[in-house]
Amino acid sequence: KWTPGAFVDLTVEELKQKIGNDKVVLGLSGGVDSTVAAMLLHKAIGDKLYCIFVNNGLLRKNEFTDVLAQYKDMGLNVKGVDASKRFLDALAGVSDPEQKRKAIGRVFIEVFDDEAHKIKDVTYLAQGTIYPDVIESVSVNGPSVTIKSHHNVGGLPDFMKLKIVEPLRMLFKDEVRRVGAEIGIAKQLLGRHPFPGPGLAIRILGDITAEKVRILQEVDAIFIEGLREWDLYDKVWQAGAILLPINSVGVMGDERTYEQVVALRAVESTDGMTADWVNLPYEFLQKTSNKIINRVKGVNRVVYDISSKPPATIEWE
Ligand code: XMP
């Protein structure tokens, strides 16, 4: 019978044998998979594991700083790289969803390759690939975790020529969470909702600017904090906010406003392949909407997405 304890003992032993005194580089995303993979490797080889956590400027509010601090507390040898500007520059004027994904994937590879080059004599590239990624049913891992081959137009970057280690490749998501709990990773981190690799870029419909990212981060933070306060966070599989590319008329005092609309989305799912919108309490929606409109300058209307997948997807892009 599979148990997380036995898996950890066996895997750590195997990693020690396999890697010996060599160096390993790994990209952390803030998600469950890359974190658990990193902690297993850390147990096996300590500081010979070099973690890189890239801020693409499209993460949730305060996520980069908070998660980087958590990684350090966990004892990981991690370098935080703030490449926000590089990503935003590459995204300037890009509205097509697939072009956004391509631009983000390309810049990620450039940034990661630059960083990997700064570590002398690396032998292995570790990835948080899990079994569903291997069989390619659905991947909720973005380029920051699972590097997909179609990103390499024009030859492989050097880090992709490294030998691969994937300690989670035989595990399902729930098993990864159990392994994470076994090795002492905080419950809050393990229970996090999935978050797409391209981040807020695919939740800002149309082109992306630093100001739009800031607005969406504020809205998203109010929504997610509210879910936690109302004890709804763990009942939802994934939640987030979408910034719509339209303005709508409103009133504030005696003044007419003409500002942006945001949509809130919360779904129940087991694997992301199908999903139902969540019947959130009206009172929660009412309070959240008020908070958003009162606190976030530039937004005067909030709508709730009541579409299920299929035919609607979870993300709007
Ligand atoms: P959809 O929108 O296809 O999303 O119903 C299903 C799940 O996949 C995530 N998603 C992505 N994850 N890179 C990712 O890493 C992407 O480009 C991407 N697009 C969608 C989405 O957040 C949901 O969990």
TrEMBL record:
Pathway(s) where this gene product acts: Purine metabolism; GMP biosynthesis; GMP from XMP (L-Gln route): step 1/1
Protein name: GMP synthase [glutamine-hydrolyzing]
Top-level enzyme category: ligase
Annotated binding of ATP, by residue: 29-35
Chain ranges of the GMPS ATP-PPase domain: 2-192
Keywords: ATP-binding, Glutamine amidotransferase, GMP biosynthesis, Ligase, Nucleotide-binding, Purine biosynthesis
Annotated function: Catalyzes the synthesis of GMP from XMP.
GO MF annotation list: ATP binding; GMP synthase activity
Oligomer and partners: Homodimer.
Protein's UniProt keywords contain ATP-binding: yes
GO cellular component, one term: cytosol
Entry annotated with the keyword DNA damage: no
Catalytic activity: XMP + L-glutamine + ATP + H2O = GMP + L-glutamate + AMP + diphosphate + 2 H(+)
EC number(s) stated in the UniProt entry for this protein: 6.3.5.2
Span of the entire protein shown here: 193 to 509 of 509
